[in-house]
Amino acid sequence: MKTIQISILLCSSLLLQAQSKAGAGKEPPRGPTAHPSLLNPATLRAQAPPVFKAQFTTTKGDFVVEVHRDWSPNGADRFYNLVKNGFFDGAEFFRVVPNFMVQFGISGNPKIAAAWAHQNLRDDPVKSGNKRGRITFAMAGPNTRTTQVFINFRDNSNLDSQGFASFGEVTEGMDVVDKLYSGYGDMQEMGGHGPSPGKIETEGNVYLDKNFSQLDKIKTAKILP
Asked: Which of 193, 7, 192 is nearest to 100 (CA)?
């Protein structure tokens, strides 16, 4: 169990330490074209509604996340702005560990990934635990949350004491989340055969499409009315 907890921290740490390079993904996500503001994170600071839903359309089907701002205000606001401005469009589920969690949130466009790499959020106190279906930002220590999030496949309440504050939960389509491709296992740095977060950030979807073509991806993500 201790190894699993540390693995989330290391994944986030690798992203924060990666040195971003110029370039664009083979299949640039919709966001960079439709929302140029993604290259200027300082402009995306809208406060989220008290409760809102975000629909993710993926290569395996759709799922809906219901976000509660009172669970994690800073996390909810960041997630709201990312979804609303197309950040997750085209992003891939790069880390799928059965009976643990699925992680995503690195842009397939290296320029956008670089713009957000150091946009750290202040921590929120843990008010709602990491139960099955809950969604939470990954982090590498205090005040290090940026754009990576994970959905718990099981009750991971052991993460609560580590400061992982969930901000919402999957209310529709958890069966879709369960079916996301997990054949690569954990990332290479943790002994698996999955992609390296640092390479995703610097090379984008070109790296993933060439070396991990079976990964599922997000087609679009939007705030539901």
From this structure: 7
Sole residue written with tokens 């299949």? 27
Please tell me the pTM assigned to this model.
0.87
* Amino acid identity for residue 109 in this structure: N
Spatial contact of 120 and 127, defined as CB atoms under 8 Å apart: no
Architecture of domain 2-37+48-223: Beta Barrel (2.40)
Average pLDDT, the chain: 88
Helices assigned H by DSSP within the chain: 2-17, 30-34, 73-84, 110-116, 174-178, 197-203, 205-211
> Over 60: is that where the pLDDT of 6 sits?
no
Question: How do the domains of the chain map onto residue ranges?
Answer: 2-37+48-223
Please, which pLDDT band fits residue 8 given cuts at 50, 70 and 90? low
The two tokens of residue 10 are 């290391």
Closest CA to 86 of 163, 147, 152, 128: 147
* Half-sphere exposure in the Cβ direction for 136 (13 Å, CA): 32
